[in-house]
Fold this protein.
Amino acid sequence: MSPKDTPHTPPLARAPHDRAADERLVPDLVPTLRADSASRVLVVWGDRAPLSPTGSLAFVAPDAVAGDAGWAFLGRDAGGSALLVAAFDADADAPLPAPEWGALRAVGGDLPPEEASVFVSALALGRWLLDSRYCPRCGGSTELRAAGWSRRCTVCGREHFPRTDPAVIVAVTDASGDRLLLGKNARWAQRNVYSAFAGFVEAGESLESAIVREIAEESGVAVRGIRYRGSQAWPYPRSLMLGFHAVAADPDAARPDGEEIVDVRWFTRSELRAAFAGDGDVHLPGAASIAHRLIRDWIDGDEDRP
């Protein structure tokens, strides 16, 4: 079953666009496509992209983009047109006029699946293009290769690729399956946002070990019954979020770590339905996030479905 056909796939991974990776080694591919008016460019400014009046992504022709951007080939759309990214730093002037700019975390869950795929790839790759101009080994300048998907150091010859950091995110239930444990991060305290527990996989650590460690550190709970639910890229700054459900061995042990997590709370389905509906003072993650999908799956009783 493809991601597009799977209703419980995370929102930014439902319909991968054609990356056309075999074309990346074509000599001078990006300059050639920039000279082609049929190419479609997604401009990324910080973590935002231009939106059309209908809320979809607003692609432009290459000649509409001026300034010092990071350029790369993203693949092909359903009609065969080339897709390019032109990435600009967040502190640069607006790279082109647009009625609205939308951040991935704010609008990604509402975009058509193919557009969401293009946006997350453009943001992840675009940030690397802008942030990795120098070799981390020797400090030498680098030159782009593979249509923007690798860099070669002009001094030491080392080749570098976009970095992706694996992170686990886990929705924890009690043994009965009637309550879901969520935590409030210190960064979200004023907005009263509760979400699933998440953390980066450390060097030499398995996903399962990372889950046990992170949940214990943040909530004081030991978990069992770990079940994988799906993954999606989350370029804040360069994560691959791997979603899971798990069961708390002792629900009464739940407590916040007091630093990163300032509160933990067991929620019923009715409480979370009300929060999603905007009733009460509890807020939940936005639709673009895998946390949103994990919580929705549990509310709907779909956490065990493929």
